[in-house]
Amino acid sequence: MTTLAAVDCGTNSLRLLISRVEVVDGVLEITELHRLMEIVRLGQGVDATGMLAPEALERVREALTKYAELMQVEKVQAVRMVATSATRDASNRDDFFAMTREILAPWGAEAEVISGDEEAALSFRGAVDDLELELGPYCVIDVGGGSTEVIVGDHDGTVAGSDSVAMGSVRLTERFLQASPPTAEQVQEARSYVAELADEIVAKVPVDKARTIVGCAGTFTTLSALAQGLETYDPEAIHLSQLRFAALRALTASVIETDAESLAANPVMHPKRADVFAGGSIIVDGLMDMFEALPLSEAAKEEQRFFYISEKDILDGIVASLVDTHIAH
C-alpha cells in the first residue's frame, strides 16, 4: 500500500488530492482519501504587472503548509506538485519555487512548471477515467484561472491534438470585466477575445472529431451545481452530470447579469470564486459557440450539444503519473 499526493497550483486555486494505492490480486486500486481546495488567487495582477504579488505568495504559503501537515498525518510517501499559468508568466517565479521547495522538503519535492501541452494531457487522463469507452473520442476542456486547456483523444491516452490558450476566469475578469455585474460593453470585449482564441483552438485541435465533450474544473462543476439547483456542493451529484447547451446558455446569461455578492450568497458557490465566475461563464459561452459553428452533420452536432461534467481532473492525472513512477503493476 502506497499513499500519494498531488498538488495543483493554478492561477486561482491551490488544490490537493491524497490517494491510497494498492495492488489487489493483480488489479490496481486507487482510493481517494482527501480532495481539498483553497482559493489563493496566485495570479492576482500577474497579467498587468508580470509579477506574483507578495500577498498572493503568502496565501499560497499558508495553504500549502496546511496541506503538508495533512500529508504528514496521512504518511504520504511521494508528492508531485505542478504549477500552471500564473507561474509560467511571472518574473519573480523563483521566490515561489523556493517557498514550495522549503515546505515540501520532507518529500524531496518542489513545484514544477509544466507546459500547456502536459497540463492538457494530465487533465485529459484524469477527466476521462470514469467515462465509457464507447463515448470516445473525447474533447476534454479545463477552464482555469489563467488559461484554458483543450485536448482531443481516446480513452487509452492516445492524443489527437491539444492546445493551451490564455483565457481563464481571472485573466478575463482582470482584463475586461471591471464592473460587477459587467457592463454590456465589457462583456462584448471579453466575448470577442474568447472568440479569437476559439478560432486558434479549432485551427490546432481536431475538435470536430470528438464524440463527447467533457468539462472539468471549478467553472464547469459549479455551473452543474447551479443547474441542478443543489442546496450544497455535492461532488457525487456533479460527477458525470450533463449540461445541454440550450439550458446552459440561459444559466450563463443569468450568471453574467448577476453581481458577485449575490453569486457568493449561493451555497454551492465558493465565495472566492464568485468575483471571477462571470469570466468563466463567458468562456463557456464561447466554447459552445465554437462547437456549434463546426461543419458537422446534424447527427454529429446532436452528440456535441452537451457537456459531460467531470469532478476528476488534473489532480487525478497527477496521481496517475505518480503511480506510473512508484507502483509496480
Automatic annotation (TrEMBL):
It holds the Pfam family Ppx-GppA. Gene3D superfamilies: 3.30.420.40, Exopolyphosphatase. Domain 2. Residues 24-293 form the Ppx/GppA phosphatase N-terminal domain. One of its GO terms (molecular function) is pyrophosphatase activity. This is Ppx/GppA family phosphatase.
